[in-house]
Amino acid sequence: MLEIRNLCVNYGEKTVFKDFSLSVGDKEILCVMGKSGCGKTTLLNAIAGLVPHSGEISGADGVSYMFQEDRLIPSLTAMSNVTFATAHLYKDKKEAEKTAIESLKAVGLEGFENRYPHTLSGGQAARVSLARAFAYPSGLLITDEPFKGLDIATTDLMEKYFLELFSNSRKCAVIVSHSVEEAVNLADRVVVLGGSPCDVVFETALDMPRPEREKNAAYTAEKAAEIKAAIIAS
Fold first, then answer.
1. pLDDT digits (tens, 9 = 90+) for 134-178
2. What is the CB neighbour count within 10 angstroms for residue 95?
3. Do strands 14-24 and 2-11 pair parallel, antiparallel, or not at all (unpaired)?
């Protein structure tokens, strides 16, 4: 789980967050949305400890961060890009490699372990990044539009892999997205940020189970309309 209490973030004289609080439950996927520049990425960076802030951020046992770019190391193979983030957790190098191979297999990249980033498509590189994020045994996954720029078919595939990996993990997740469709497909709950300083201006639970949600066009359309309206009004 994740607990944020009284978060304050300032950029010079600009106050982005002031006494901001938010919680994410165990095994919950929270999608954070809002207009560009409202503070979504700043929130993720504060959670990850990448920007100065005050307040309390607790509950998560380690953090995995998926950025907008795949951020693979060009000189390392797909497997080595995964073990680069995890090798220090294992006494035996072979155990780290075994975990990396299993993670790559889980995203459909069996046989790609020794491929270098420049030989991978954008979708394949994104899958390596996804495998790396889930291979790291953190309690929290945060993502900043990791499927941005992918075609529709690849995005659908990435969402499928994401949900499969998530269901087999012990993580909770905070997803930043500009895609209402992605939010409705993946999230258990959606919050919209707005205002200055930034705060939650809208919240809705997607309480219908995903298998039923996928078959219920009226439900997903209604939720998407609510979220879209909230973003426009924020």
1. 999 899 999 999 888 899 999 999 999 999 999 988 899 999 999
2. 14
3. antiparallel
Residue labelled with tokens 């394949």: 124
Return the amino acid letter for 8. Answer: C
> What is the 3 state secondary structure string of the chain?
CEEEEEEEEEECCEEEEEEEEEEECCCCEEEEECCCCCCHHHHHHHHCCCCCCEEEEECCCCEEEECCCCCCCCCCCHHHHHHHHHHHHCCCHHHHHHHHHHHHHHCCCCCCCCCCHHHCCHHHHHHHHHHHHHHCCCCEEEEECCCCCCCHHHHHHHHHHHHHHHHCCCCEEEEECCCHHHHHHHCCEEEEEECCCEEEEEEEECCCCHHHHHHCHHHHHHHHHHHHHHHHHC
Q: CA-CA distances (angstroms) from residue 176 to 43, 106, 121, 187, 233?
A: 9, 23, 23, 11, 18
pTM of the entire predicted model: 0.93
Give dist(CA 61, CA 49) in Å, integer. 13
Contacts of 210 (CB under 8 A, 6+ apart): 163, 185
How wide is the angle at C-alpha 176 spanned by C-alphas 71 and 11, nearest 5°?
85
pLDDT-derived band at 53, boundaries 50, 70, 90: very high
Distance CA 231, CA 222 (A): 14
